[in-house]
Amino acid sequence: MKANNRKELLKKGLVVWLTIVVIAAFCGTIFGSFIISF
Amino acid sequence: MRIVYKILYIIVCVFTFIFVFMVSMGHKFNNAVKKTNEAIFVDYDDEKEIVYHDIKYDAKEICQYDLYIPQKHKEARNYSLVLFIHGGSFTGGDKEEGVHWCRYYASKGRVAASVNYTLHSNENPSSINIMSNDIINCVKDIKEHCDSLGYHIDEMATTGVSAGGCLALLYAYREADNSSIPVKFVFQQTGPTAFHGEHWGAHSDSMKLALASALLGVRLSDSTMRNGDYLSLIENISPACNITTNSVPTLCAYGVNDKIVPTNQKYILFDSLKSNSIPYIYVEFPNSGHALVNDPDSMASYVKYADLFCERYFKNKTE
């Protein structure tokens, strides 16, 4: 039961982390586009 | 213990965000620069060709230049020099910025050089006149150095970016008579052309004097505003005010969204060129700001026009 909970938690943590990576990449690219047109 | 893990997790997420954000932004910017500069990228082997790095032309440590000699084009003829002057708001930048431009022209059989000049800082104040004087000394040294290598240079063009563009214009218009090598034309990107305070958002006398003092490296008093010295000193360092009917043809590039050099600067230059009947070409970068990295097509046409200027105004033909 405990091991299952830990697995779930890790899975959630990984999903959130990957979401942050995608959002950061998107924001960085948008900001980069802004910088080059400035 | 769970709290510690949570805090660690949050820290990891924050650092991940910052890291990925910076990498993506850098990647986007580098890609744009690479795409824009494609027009001047050439296969150039620094080993086969000759590049002399860090040649000193003055006692000051910063006064150095890199010289690109077209070794495989060595013939018993005269050569043309293209001198690149880097940008950086007169306070930063390095001759390394000119490496692709210099390789490009050296690959076409021209001698090319990229120069460092005395930058302004609080510890080591400089001025546009000191920088301009550095360029004069550098050209003199380039001529002597090339003569000793068996490359006789008898004509030149100045080029540059931003502050370097301004110095390139100033050298071509104001210092042409002091130049060891006759200047045939100038081509530059986003260079300031007139330093009158009102063009730079300095509307009060004190702001105008502060700007002029920073550029001239001397503290100007209020009386200079009244007796006309301010105006004559500012006009002396403004490329557009040094254009005469004998000035050289000019090629310019400016970005429509430039937030650093006011967009009216180019019109001041064009008006002066027009009124003195000097031929000029303006290449507009419609989607770019000061860095001109968002219009590869415009950069390609700027390079094409620069080649056209070389063909038309240099008498030494290479290809």
How is the secondary structure organized here?
The complex is a heterodimer of chains A (about 40) and B (about 325).
Chain A: H1 2-37
Chain B: H1 2-37, E1 50-56, E2 64-69, E3 78-85, H2 99-107, E4 111-115, H3 128-149, E5 152-161, H4 163-174, E6 183-189, H5 205-216, H6 223-227, H7 229-237, E7 250-255, H8 264-275, E8 280-285, H9 296-313
Parallel strand pairs in B: 3-4, 3-5, 5-6, 6-7, 7-8
Antiparallel strand pairs in B: 1-2, 2-4
Helix pairs in contact in B: 1-9, 5-7
The fraction of residues assigned to DSSP E strands of chain B is 15-25%
Low-pLDDT regions of chain B: none
Helix content of chain A: over 70%
Largest β sheet strand count, sense and barrel closure of chain B: 8 strands, mixed
End-to-end C-alpha gap of chain A: 55 Å
Query: What is the approximate shape of chain A?
Result: rod-shaped
- Please give the radius of gyration of chain A in angstroms: 17 Å
Number of helices of chain A: 1
Provide the residue-averaged pLDDT of chain A.
89
Question: Which regions of chain A have little confidence, pLDDT < 50, spanning 5+ residues?
Answer: none
Describe the global form of chain B: globular
Strand percentage of chain A lies at under 5%
How would you sum up this structure, described in words?
- The complex is a heterodimer of chains A (38) and B (319).
- Chain A starts with a helix and ends with a helix.
- Chain A is built from 1 helix and no strands.
- Chain A is rod-shaped and about 55 Å long.
- Chain A is mainly α and 38 residues long.
- In chain A, 95% of the residues lie in helices and 0% in strands.
- Chain B is α/β, with parallel strands linked by helices and 319 residues long.
- Chain B has an 8-stranded mixed sheet, with helices on both faces.
- In chain B, helix 1 packs parallel to helix 9 and helix 5 (205-216) crosses helix 7.
- The A-B interface holds A 13, 16-17, 20-21, 23-29, 31-33, 35-38 and B 9, 12-13, 16-29, 32, 257, 259, 287-291, 293-294.
